[in-house]
């Protein structure tokens, strides 16, 4: 009998209108966190949990005094080159800071200035870029 | 006037590429960091920097050779950047670290012409043009040396490198070196592998080389930067009450590109907004707030869908009036953009008729006049819906601030647990959001299916504070999705 009642209840729910109204409200649950929350309302997260699937990066560029003025494009991309997070024309002697958002699924960032190119991971939210490189060492 | 300013900027910015009249400075090592000189295209072979008092010649840093073992000029050297030698003499200072412990010490000077066919460094065959030899007893006090530049390379149109080699046989006595001076015009480009300064092609003469310029024939535009490459926005619309958490009451996909000019100021923001699904009976609107940005920075808005605007009024520049920050209406009525084919909602029931999503291409123009410009880092997008044509009720992503038009009376009521003063908004007491943004094109939930049923790793991502399954929305691995509970727009994966 109990099973019949459950089946009947499911059938009624299934046939009900899909129209949403305030009846669809979910009463806040007092259920404590479980390892296998099956409903979104049951999830418990930290108070400051960031629901975004991206994070803000700050990039500091340390200018280098150059013998002659050198202007070129600083380009910040995802490691596959498909997303351009920043582009701008800058003097090599110019120090500046900028910010941009990076999707969580991106594993690496490339900062380039002409032939100078450096790779960064995405665990930290800061990039410190300078023009010093071993590429000119012989 | 603007063109005159642009021309002046251009002249300044292209100095290195066009006039290149910068004199090669003294190599004194006073930076204390050899990498600084290397970044400026000096080359060092077995030469280090030293600040040991006994090894100094002038200042606080000098250069030091290795212990020579042969007379091969390739063994130990300093090379200039690419230069165009002018008239005068090469001068430098040297001393030795010991008067003895040596058989022979020799300084050899050579030059190399630029050779486009010669390997990575494009150095042609080195031509020896002078040398000086020492035998014990070696001088341990500073010697000023002078060498004449060969006439063949003075004032030539070809760039050259000068190599000064510090070689020898027998013993371990090293050279100390300082203040290398070569009369020449600097002709290297550190941003191009230190090769000679190239001829930059810049058709619109905005200062950005065509190779980097997304708009090579438009001096007003130079770069495209992805503010948002692609994102799927999913809203619940019963705020301040929670709903069924299928997050499909309004589903949009969007991308945002900032177009900037050669001064790195924003010229336009190009917003492509695709309305994909409506899982609600409410006729919601969709807007974009530029947080902390004065609406006066914007000069125009095109391409939005204002089917019903009784609840809003707009300035001549297309932004909404009476707002603290710039607010752009994307569309005022979801059902006018994506009409229902009948039944409840649009594209949330796999059994119902499919409706092709509608894309709005919105162009937001920015002022580029001095004192009213906008930089990339000032652009902070805050997308939100207004609920069922009630301008006072907005739903934003968690911790995004409402616009000035939102009523504050509803915050902290029903299931909402916002604290505006602390920047906490649109969260329940369990910290749950009322909207989600996924940085990918992602399928949304079939009507009335809890999002955890479709995205199987979502709960673990959230409960781990974002540490686990950062790609919970992807389909890269088996077990991430229950696809029969997800609604796929045609072309989605």
Tell me what you see in this structure:
The complex is a heterodimer of chains A (138) and B (493). In chain A, 10% of the residues lie in helices and 36% in strands. By secondary structure, chain A is mostly beta strands. Chain A starts with a helix and ends in an 8-residue tail after the last strand. Chain B is mainly β and 493 residues long. In chain B, the strands form seven sheets. In chain B, strands 19-21-17-16-15-24 form a six-stranded antiparallel β-sheet, with no helix packed on it. Chain B has a five-stranded antiparallel β-sheet with strand order 1-4-10-7-8, with no helix packed on it. Chains A and B meet through strand 2, strand 3 and strand 4 of A and helix 3, strand 1, strand 13, strand 15 and strand 24 of B.
Structure in a nutshell:
The complex is a heterodimer of chains A (138) and B (493). With 138 residues, chain A is mainly beta.
Percentage of residues in strands of chain A: 35-45%
Q: Please count the beta strands of chain A (DSSP E, at least 2 residues each).
A: 7
The protein's oligomeric status is heterodimer
Q: Give helix and strand order of chain A, one letter per element, not per position.
A: HEEEEEEE
Residue share in helix of chain B? under 10%
Largest interface: A-B, 72 and 95 residues
Give the CA-based shape of chain A.
elongated
Q: Choose one word for the global shape of chain B.
A: elongated
**Could you describe the largest sheet of chain A, including whether it forms a barrel?**
4 strands, antiparallel
Task: Compute the average pLDDT of chain B.
Answer: 93
Query: What is the helix tally of chain A?
Result: 1
Strand content of chain B: 25-35%
Which consecutive residue ranges of chain A, at least 5 long each, have pLDDT under 50?
A: 1-35
Distance between the termini of chain A: 86 Å
Q: Count of DSSP E strands of chain B?
A: 26
């Amino acid at each position: 009998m109990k099973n019949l009642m459950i089946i009947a209840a499911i059938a009624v729910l299934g046939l009900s209108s899909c129209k949403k109204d305030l009846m669809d409200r979910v009463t806040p649950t007092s259920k404590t966190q479980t390892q296998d929350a099956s409903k979104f309302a049951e999830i418990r997260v930290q108070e400051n949990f960031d629901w975004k699937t991206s994070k803000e990066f700050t990039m500091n560029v340390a200018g280098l005094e150059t013998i002659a003025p050198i202007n070129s494009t600083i380009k910040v991309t995802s490691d596959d080159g498909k997303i351009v997070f920043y582009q701008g024309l800058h003097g090599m002697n110019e120090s500046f800071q900028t910010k941009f958002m990076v999707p969580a699924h991106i594993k690496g960032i490339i900062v380039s200035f002409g032939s100078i190119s450096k790779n960064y991971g995405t665990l930290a939210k800061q990039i410190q870029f300078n023009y010093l490189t071993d590429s000119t060492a012989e | 006037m603007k063109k005159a300013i642009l021309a002046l900027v251009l002249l300044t910015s292209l100095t290195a590429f066009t006039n290149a009249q910068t004199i090669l400075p003294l190599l004194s090592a006073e930076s204390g960091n050899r990498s600084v000189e290397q970044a400026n295209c000096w080359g060092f072979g077995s030469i280090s920097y030293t600040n040991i008092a006994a090894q100094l010649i002038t200042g606080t840093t000098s250069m030091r050779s290795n212990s020579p073992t042969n007379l091969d000029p390739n063994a130990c050297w300093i090379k200039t950047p690419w230069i165009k030698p002018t008239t005068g003499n090469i001068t430098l200072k040297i001393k030795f670290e010991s008067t003895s412990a040596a058989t022979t010490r020799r300084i050899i000077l050579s030059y190399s012409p630029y050779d486009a066919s010669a390997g990575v460094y494009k150095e042609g065959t080195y031509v020896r043009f002078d040398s000086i030899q020492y035998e014990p007893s070696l001088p341990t006090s500073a010697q000023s040396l002078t060498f004449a530049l060969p006439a063949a390379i003075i004032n030539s149109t070809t760039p050259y490198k000068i190599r000064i080699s510090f070689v020898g046989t027998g013993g371990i006595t090293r050279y100390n070196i300082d203040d290398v001076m070569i009369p020449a015009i600097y002709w290297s480009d550190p941003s191009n592998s230190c090769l000679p300064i190239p001829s930059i092609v810049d058709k619109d003469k905005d200062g950005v080389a065509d190779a980097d310029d997304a708009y090579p024939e438009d001096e007003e535009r130079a770069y495209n930067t992805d503010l948002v490459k692609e994102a799927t926005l999913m809203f619940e619309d019963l705020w301040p009450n929670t709903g069924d958490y299928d997050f499909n009451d309004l589903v949009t996909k969007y991308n945002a590109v900032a177009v900037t000019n050669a001064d790195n100021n924003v010229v336009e923001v190009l917003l492509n907004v695709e309305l994909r699904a409506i899982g609600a009976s409410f006729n919601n609107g969709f807007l974009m707030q530029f947080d902390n940005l004065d609406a006066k920075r914007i000069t125009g808005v095109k391409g939005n869908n204002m089917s019903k605007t009784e609840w809003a009024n707009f300035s001549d520049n297309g932004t909404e009036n009476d707002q603290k920050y710039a607010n752009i209406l994307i569309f005022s009525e979801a059902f006018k953009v994506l009409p229902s084919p009948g039944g409840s909602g649009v594209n949330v029931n796999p059994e119902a008729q499919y409706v092709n999503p509608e894309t709005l291409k919105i162009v937001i123009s920015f002022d580029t006049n001095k004192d009213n410009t906008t930089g990339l880092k000032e652009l902070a997008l805050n997308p939100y819906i207004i609920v069922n044509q009630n301008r006072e009720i907005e739903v934003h992503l968690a911790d995004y601030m409402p616009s000035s038009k939102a009523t504050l009376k509803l915050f902290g009521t029903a299931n909402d647990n916002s604290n505006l003063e602390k920047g906490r908004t649109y969260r329940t007491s369990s910290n749950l959001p009322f909207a989600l943004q996924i940085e990918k094109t992602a399928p949304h939930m079939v009507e009335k299916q809890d999002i955890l049923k479709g995205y199987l790793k979502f709960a673990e991502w959230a409960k781990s504070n974002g540490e686990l399954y950062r790609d919970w929305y992807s389909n890269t691995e088996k077990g991430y999705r229950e696809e029969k509970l997800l609604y796929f727009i045609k072309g989605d994966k």
